[in-house]
Specification:
Layout (H helix, E strand, L loop, with lengths): L11 H11 L17 E6 L1 H13 L27 H4 L37 E2 L11 E2 L10 H20 L5 H25 L1 H7 L2 H4 L23 H5 L12 E2 L20 E2 L44 E3 L25 H11 L5 H7 L42 H10 L13 H17 L4 H4 L13 H9 L1
Antiparallel strand pairs: 1-6, 2-3, 4-5
């Protein structure tokens, strides 16, 4: 997006120091479900963290993305079409990858049955394969269009829900061709991206500033899109500012612990069970007690999706039946993300997700957040307001300034890493613990223009073919609605 801006310069030692500050201290015990967690973002449900991961895997596939070498942004190859076309679901299609499909070539294969969700006894895992040489402890690899969608238990079950959504539409449109059903599934998904995910992350105002017809009610031809910074000449692309900085906002939304369903644990919680049937995103001692992927997890771990997305249930704010919220978009990552498990292939000296992100931005030659803000004609956040830490009433006042980091603060004067700046920009909206926090004008526009630009560039998207298409007569269809349809 901003090729003419000079690359920001930092020492690796300074980025290491910043990364250490961005990783929150380990919590002695997770917040009880009998009280509201002050780190939760009251404007974003927990499921959007993993919907964002799913969308990312749909758009991009870069097997050469290594921190161990210098990469040229112009030489990066996207091995997946930069389109919202669900090739992470469909792979290369029933002719080229028939093992993903049932014998009829229309329905997608599903995995074993899962239990634990009293509202959906038909919950299914993704299909898996265990090699004979793997033995009793062999990894059960998912047979899906993109293996990354088995990185953790939540995204793998989101993948399964999408498989079931396709099969449901196959059943409802039994006389339609596979291609016709596939288009219908894709358009429903694209609608969710545009009308649910984006407004939740960047706000309706930002979406309407790019697609004004959504607010005015006019035709998109009469009230045309307004892309200020996302431009392509011959082919659409994934901007490096999006992939390496702005879209990594989701890392700050990860919770340390999740409740998968109401069958696990008790209500009220047992006094001797501090986690009360919940699971850690990464367990410090035992992978089998965490939500790590690339394996056949316990069959009782079926997800109750109304604990992750608003599905109209009006759940309580506390207790095992509450809607869990994502953590706030701020300059703090939960402690488990500072020590990524080596069992998933992370090298011993690069286990901090914050440090990996910061070094990635350096290796790609990203400009500073301040320079990008100036290029976008947005007010630049002062050094006094760029602070490191949680967006909570307890921490906000004492969070250290970026420019006060011991021994390295001078490197950050007017020169914040773009990924950090995007998080800190969102954090400027904080007023009190209940304040919803979304991406700000710099991060939000990079994400929104990239998404909308890709939809407009795709000749097969609903926005290109039939801009006034809607999934139903009332024009309301959310991720919660998609899951309800898939599981009905």
């Amino acid at each position: 997006m901003f090729r003419r801006l000079r690359a920001a310069s930092f020492s690796e030692s300074a980025l290491h120091a910043l990364a250490m500050l961005m990783i929150a201290p380990a919590e002695a015990l997770p917040t009880a479900e009998t009280e509201v967690d002050n780190e939760e973002n009251q404007g974003i449900a927990a499921g959007f963290t993993y919907l964002g991961q799913f969308i990312d895997h749909d758009l991009t596939f870069d097997p050469a993305s290594s921190l161990m070498k210098q990469n040229d942004p112009d030489a990066l190859v996207d091995f997946r079409n930069p389109q919202f076309d669900l090739d992470n679901i469909y792979g290369r299609g029933p002719d080229d990858q028939p093992y993903l499909y049932e014998a009829d070539g229309r329905h997608l294969q599903l995995g074993r049955r899962l239990t634990g969700n009293p509202a959906d006894p038909n919950t299914r895992d993704v299909p898996r394969h265990v090699s004979e040489s793997g033995g009793a402890n062999g990894r059960a690899r998912a047979l899906i269009g993109d293996p990354r969608n088995d990185e953790n238990v939540i995204v793998s079950q989101l993948q399964s829900a999408m498989l079931r959504f396709h099969n449901k539409l196959c059943d409802e449109h039994a006389h339609e061709s596979f291609e016709a059903v596939q288009q219908l599934v894709r358009w429903h998904y694209q609608w969710v991206v545009l009308h649910d995910f984006l407004p939740t992350i960047v706000g309706h105002e930002m979406v309407h500033s790019i697609l004004p017809h959504l607010k005015s009610g006019k035709s998109m031809l009469d009230d045309q899109p307004r892309l200020r910074f996302y431009r392509w000449r011959n082919n659409p692309f994934i901007p490096i500012e999006f992939a390496v900085a702005a879209y990594r906002f989701g890392h700050s939304m990860v919770r340390p612990i999740y409740r998968l369903n109401t069958t696990l644990g008790t209500d009220p919680p047992a006094s001797n069970d501090p986690v009360n049937g919940r699971q850690f995103i990464f367990h410090p001692e035992d992978d089998n007690q965490s939500l790590n992927g690339f394996r056949a997890f316990p069959s009782i771990w079926a997800i109750e999706w109304n604990l992750f997305f608003d599905m109209g249930d009006r759940l309580p704010n506390v207790g095992v039946k509450r809607l869990q919220r994502a953590y706030k978009i701020d300059t703090s990552l939960v402690n488990p993300l500072g020590l990524l498990p080596t069992s998933l292939g992370f090298p011993e000296n690069r286990r901090s997700l914050a440090e990996r992100n910061l070094l990635r931005g350096l290796s790609m030659g990203l400009p500073s957040g301040q320079d990008v803000a100036r290029a976008m004609c947005e007010p630049v956040i002062s050094d006094d307001a760029l602070r490191v830490g949680k967006a909570t009433e307890e921490s906000q006042a004492t969070n250290p300034k970026l420019v006060d980091i011991k021994d390295f603060g001078k490197e950050f004067v007017g020169n914040a890493p773009l990924w950090f700046y995007v998080l800190a920009e969102a954090q400027q909206a904080f007023r009190k613990d209940s304040t919803p926090i979304r991406l700000g004008p710099v991060g939000g526009r990079i994400v929104a223009e990239t998404f909308i630009g890709l939809l407009l560039a795709d000749p097969h998207s609903f926005l290109s073919q039939t801009p006034d298409w809607a999934p139903n007569k009332n024009g309301k269809f959310t991720m919660g609605d998609l899951i309800k349809k898939a599981t009905s």
